[in-house]
Amino acid sequence: MEIRCLGEFSFVIDGRPVRTWRAGKARSLFQYLLVNRDRFASGNRLCEVLWPGRAVSPRSSSLKVAMHAVRKILAAHQGFTIEHENGHYRLTARDVVIDFEQLARYANTGQHQRVAELYTGDFLPGDHADWVVEHREWCKTLVLHSLRQISTEALRDNDYSRVIEASKRMVEIDPCAEGAYQTLMIMHARLGHLGRVHGWYRLCARRLRTELDVQPTRLTRRILAGAMRGDLRAAAA
């Protein structure tokens, strides 16, 4: 069994996707239990997650209906169990591959290239629930760290194309990662691509202004000025 939450949500068993999710809260409930698997979550917490800002009691039919739908879907697939104890619920799973858990394992063991390859997009894109955003940012932190490590190692090897590739992915994931723009500007300056240096600077300035209402730092401006003078290419010669 394989569950993917990065880039899109999919639940695959023996090569076949599970498509029996019905309208309602069943899929969101399963996703929350999955992220918190092997840990108990109170009925109150589940209601807060599924119906934020609404006074929904865990004793109401709403949670029971959603939980019943999840249990019904999982009943056909060995390896999943939902335990209920004193108003708390816990999902346990065995023989299942979950992409965001793999991401964490690879990151924790320094397998940075695998992290970069596994990260195919945001965690549960399009879902803006608080708990989803928190987990999404955590996944981004892992992949951005790995990409920085890849970039650093490539720079030691004077592999400019790999540095550029890693830095471009960083700004795709985090459009306000000013350090990645700085690296891109320096690499293109060393290669004599002054148009690209200026292009990356303009993109950086626009995104920082739009997203954060700030200007590029003094260091970024100094890199641009040095590149335009030819200082950076001369230093690399």
TrEMBL record:
BP GO terms, sorted: regulation of DNA-templated transcription
Pfam families membership: BTAD
SMART domains the UniProt entry points to: BTAD
Segments crossing the lipid bilayer: none
GO molecular function: DNA binding
InterPro entries: AfsR-DnrI-RedD_regulator, BTAD, Sig_transdc_resp-reg_C-effctor, TPR-like_helical_dom_sf, WH-like_DNA-bd_sf
Domain named Bacterial transcriptional activator: residues: 98-228
Biological classification of the source: Bacteria, Bacillati, Actinomycetota, Actinomycetes, Pseudonocardiales
UniProt-recorded name of the protein: Transcriptional regulatory protein, C terminal
